[in-house]
Amino acid sequence: MTRAAAFWRDRRGASALEFGLIAPLFFAFIFGIVEIGLLLWTQAGMQHGAALAARCATVNTTLCPTSNPDMITAYASQQAFGLNLPASTFTYASPACGNQVTASYQFQFPQILNLAPVTLTAASCFPA
Length: 128
Known about the structure:
The chain is an alpha+beta fold. It has one domain (15-126). It has helices at residues 3-9, 14-59, 69-78; strands at residues 90-93, 99-107, 118-126. Strands 1-2-3 form a three-stranded antiparallel beta sheet. Helix 2 runs antiparallel to helix 3. The radius of gyration is 25 Å and the shape is rod-shaped. The model has no long low-confidence stretch (mean pLDDT 92).
């Protein structure tokens, strides 16, 4: 048996080579799942904050007076599932549907991915 033939038949280290080839894809997939989860959590938190603030503006005018939109947007920010979003993310209006709270937020992916930010929006209108 020649030395070259023995080299090509040697199977030692095959698992390490396979891991080295597959690991980057696997970890990128896991990282992507985590980032999409954070994006969806942010979207759900914004929607939750907007819905509760619109309801508060209609039901509890002491806590959320319609004469002071800053209190309504601050309440929306507090109710956003602990996301620590600034109150400026939320806006208050009183159109024909009742009390409306909308939100707009630029979700920034980590710099490693080099992706453009995604604009997340949420809106809720509670009848007056």
